[in-house]
Amino acid sequence: MAAKSVRDMVLSLAAVLAAGIVIYLFIPHSGGNGVRPVQYQDSVVSARRAAPYPLLAPQGLPSGWNATSVNFDGSNPGAAVWTLGFIDPAGQYVAIQQSNAPADSVIHDATLDGQKTSATTTVDGTVWTNYQGSRYQAIVLKGAKGTTVVFGTETFAKLGDFAAKLTDH
User: Fold this and answer.
1) Where does the sequence pass through the membrane (predicted)?
2) What is the DSSP letter of 62?
3) Alpha carbon 9 to chain centroid distance?
4) Do 101 and 120 form a contact (C-beta atoms < 8 A)?
5) How does pLDDT run across 72-91, given as a tens digit for each residue?
């Protein structure tokens, strides 16, 4: 009786392993870096029509930049939020977030509670304020119609380079 139980357990284990191998063979494997690019150009056009501020998006990014997320939430006209995220050629995350919500709230959300530093980053003659968070660093520009936050895992200088590519047309 004990021999039959062991034999049954071995057969059951073999059946489970065989099923696992079959499933593994039929599941697609990307073999890539895990980045799933998204198309964002149509979203930019739509969001620019709806945004209560000049909506910014990068133009002329070099090859190797992949958009990974795009979202415009205009459900609250007093706190419309635009977010566009990328993975750069070095594999670092860089994103822009804009909103006409109160600046402190926008900065808190984008930087994950980042703190203002004494340093600044100059982009095309405009001074942006640096923020350091536990996960992201950011450069912030407050304007009359809203707040722009460029944030990510890149250096402040690289965030500034990205900000220099932003345009509202």
Assistant:
1) 9-27
2) P
3) 48
4) no
5) 999 999 999 999 999 999 99
CA dist 86 and 67 (Å) reads 4
pTM summary value: 0.81
- Residues paired with 96 in a beta bridge: 84, 150
SS3 readout for 95-135? EEEEECCCHHHHHHHHHCCCEEEEEEEEECCEEEEEEECCC
Q: In the structure encoding, which two tokens stand for residue 132, read together? A: 């350091």
Residue 64 lies in a domain: yes
CATH number at residue 63: 3.30.200.100
Number of other CB atoms surrounding residue 88 within 10 Å? 19
36-50 confidence digits (pLDDT tens): 889 999 999 999 999
Q: How many domains does the chain have?
A: 1
Share of the chain above pLDDT 70, in %: 94
Write the DSSP string, 6-50: HHHHHHHHHHHHHHHHHHHHHS----S-S------HHHHHHHHHH
Share above pLDDT 90 across residues of the chain, in percent, rounded to a whole number: 76
